[in-house]
Amino acid sequence: MSTTIIARRTKRQTANRVRIIASIVVCALFIAPVVFMVLTSFKLPRDIFTVPPTFFAEFTLQNYEKLNTYDIPRKMLNTALVAVGAGFLSVVVGAMAGYALSRLRIKGGGLIGSLILATRGVPPIALAVPMFLVARNLNVTDLHMTLVIAYASFLVPYVMWLMRSFYVALPKELEESAMVDGASRLGTFFRIILPIVAPSLVSTLIFAVMMAWEELLFALILTSRDATTIPVAIQSMAVDVESGGMWGMLTAAGTLSVLPIILFVLLCQRWLIQGMAEGATKG
Q: Which among 107, 166, 229, 264 could disulfide-bond with 219, CB atoms 3.0 to 4.6 Å apart, if both were Cys?
């Protein structure tokens, strides 16, 4: 074996090791705060700020027991209803809008798409106040549906442009063949196009649900009691100055809030990875 081949193999192996080590470091940077939060949620208040800090201390569930005063289960249910509802609504609207922009000859379609995308650049606080005034005048504040529509307003542009990139990558011959056989434009979309982009649609839905799950600003302004979500509950704990810094309860609530979304992503990871891979190769 020549020296050149050995040198190339050694260089390739070194590069692979560097990539693996870099991946492990990046994963650790993302996972470490979550692990620290979970461990802190099982600590007594006196053990949270010990110097030097310790990862393991006396085990306790009192932080989770105290969460009953904040009605966490109902707020978790509200969060799930609003996040899933907003995710499905934005995927239905955004998928159809993305198809229209990619396939139909609409006068000014490019400008319309750009204007919809430009709404993503508007600061959320600039939209939250007008939304609250409209909702108050219509007497629809503190309702789940109001929050679903508010979330869809910033999720639809994201879904629309993401799905548009998938539609553009598909050959037009698929639709032309279906139309030659007598299928309508709408029938072609539902029977031919949607089954093909189903993995991409599911991965987009997952991202939309995740974005709605963690949203705080709109939930804080548009809800007051019945439809409040878990981010609002955590925020109310953080600003409760009368009880002092409730870091144990905050970490316990944070742990409970990320648990459902982690399970949701694990259950759907097959479609998530498939959709991301298709986006990388087609988009």
A: 229
